[in-house]
Amino acid sequence: MTRFVFWVVISVLMLALGMTLWIESRDNPPNPAELAAWDRARSADDATAYRRFLAQWGASGYAPQASLRLNRLRAEQAERDANDRERQVQLIIAAQKGLRRLGVEVEANGELDAATERSLRDFSSIAATDQLRIDESLVTRIEAAVLAREPRVWAEAAAVNRIETYQQFIERYPNGRFVEAARDRIAALQADFERRALIQAIQVQLQRLGQSVIPTGTLEAETAASLRELALLQTGTERVSIDADALAELEQLERWPLRPGDVFRDCPGCPEMVVIPAGSFLMGSPDREYGRQPSEGPQHEVSVTQFAIGRTEVSFSQWQSCLDQGACAIQPDDAGWGRGARPVIYVSLEDAQAYARWLSEVSGAWYRLPSEAEWEYAARAGSATSFPSGPCLSSDQANFDASRSFGRCAIGIALGQTMPVGSYPPNAFGLHDMHGNVREWVTDCWNPDYRGAPVDARAWMTGDCGRAVVRGGAWSDTAIQVRSASRTRPSGSFHNDRTGFRVVREMPHEARP
Predict the structure, then answer these.
(1) What single-letter DSSP state applies at residue 446?
(2) What mean pLDDT is reported for the chain?
(3) Are 380 and 388 in contact (CB under 8 A)?
(4) What is the pLDDT of residues 335-377, one digit of tens each?
(5) What are residue 342's DSSP bridge partners?
(6) Can you tell me the distance from the alpha carbon of 79 to that of 87, in angstroms, rounded to the nearest whole number?
(7) What is the pLDDT of residue 28?
């Protein structure tokens, strides 16, 4: 009911308003000139026509409609002007970007500054007095010029062949035909740069380790040779490795891996060691050798892996370092001959082994006494005769009792005491006093002959282990006892003024039993 009353009231009001307007129109009919001016304004429908109508007929009943339409046209024009300005800015930016891709140094700021205007006039061949139009056609012509130059720019970039040049090319031609090729070139150059940096870092490490290479960043012959040598020394294969693992391995090395013939010392108080090459030899003596004993046969071939052995016998001064640190228990007598560089004497097998254990602790390497096969291989130094010098040995070559005859060899002198280590010439492996001066302990148990002996140079640890083996003879022994094949069997606790020792150091590639 309420809604019905509401609509009745609204209808009455609208009827009253309409009657009022009809009465007023009858009392004030429009001027024909006014109507004609209004029709002309609406027909033109532009700001000028509406401004002219309002200027002449400001009190007209059509003035509100004219003002409303004029304001709307002004707003539309302002929007068009803003769009035109923004479009012009975008066109200028596009033109500036195109100019930059053509190699012109202008800033893409959307402003028609002096540099941009000058460049556009030069591009279009327009004089300073002529009008410059920046429109789609100009941008299109610039883009066409850019595309036309792409092959030439690519050829120039490829000729330079640098990462930054290819990056500049991609910036100029982000959608160009050669973009993928440019990216591939960048990736290849980056990989090459990383490889060169890696090679250079490896070369620096090789140089630190004493190799004659120059850090050039290229894998030259000297670098490849050093890496092949390193792999051969470490693994037995010539594998040239250029990677992060190879660099890390070199960085961890404190010195170049030892090679046959190298002389080194693991610590200030340690003995000098000589690296002995791997090889094979006939151990023992042939039946026809003068002075041969039954314990020296049968001859058998033994294969020897690389190892290092003392360049000389252990001296009193070297023994003293072990004694000072409490690892060695006795102060051996020197028989009145002096200490220092003379070979330590009056040491048992157990004493010699204690010294080797001490060396292992202070050096971080594994020291031990040589096996009997290692000792004879090192003493022979590639020879197959009674001595490395041939069938005879003179008192100028070793400290032994040369005053007694040995076959057809010349008689020499007998000094009757030890001499400082290294007093006589070395053998072909660079080892001194392998014959004479003092007898030398080895690790093996005693066996009366070589039947069943190892063929790989390991110590023979079965047999009469209450007795050990000494090799090389002493200052008091005749030539028969200082031959390369001669062997003696004292007890392990035996010690006198004719017995000393030298040590062996395991090499990195050897397997510890």
Answers:
(1) B
(2) 90
(3) yes
(4) 999 999 999 999 999 999 999 999 999 999 999 999 999 999 9
(5) none
(6) 12
(7) 60
CA distance 206 to 215: 9
Q: Is the pLDDT of residue 127 over 90?
A: no
For residue 85, CA distances in Å to 13, 76, 88, 110, 134 come to: 51, 14, 5, 10, 12
Q: How far apart are CA 512 and CA 160, in angstroms?
A: 57
Q: Which residues pair with residue 300 across a beta bridge? A: 283
Does the CA dihedral 189-192-198-203 come out positive or negative?
negative
CA distance 51 to 45: 11
Task: State whether the Cα torsion 442-448-452-455 is positive or negative.
Answer: positive
Are 148 and 101 in contact, with CB atoms under 8 Å apart?
no
Which CATH number fits the domain 265-513, given the four candidates 3.40.50.1110, 3.40.50.2300, 3.30.360.10, 3.90.1580.10? Answer: 3.90.1580.10
CB-CB contact of 388 with 381 (8 Å):
yes
pLDDT digits (tens, 9 = 90+) for 459-494: 999 999 999 999 999 999 999 999 999 999 988 788
297 in Cβ contact with 449 (< 8 Å): yes
Long-range CB contacts (< 8 A, 24+ apart) of 466-470?
Answer: 466/491, 466/492, 467/491, 467/492, 468/349, 468/441, 468/442, 468/443, 468/444, 468/492, 469/372, 469/441, 469/442, 469/444, 469/445, 470/439, 470/440, 470/441, 470/442, 470/499
The residues near 177 (Cβ < 8 Å, ≥ 6 apart) are 150, 154
Per domain, the residue ranges of the chain are 84-177, 181-252, 265-513
- The mean pLDDT value for 3-27 works out to 48
Q: What is the pLDDT of residue 15?
A: 53
pLDDT of 7 reads 45
| Cα-based torsion angle of the residue sequence 60, 66, 71, 77 in order, rounded to the nearest 10 degrees | -140
- 476 half-sphere exposure, CB direction, 13 A CA radius: 6
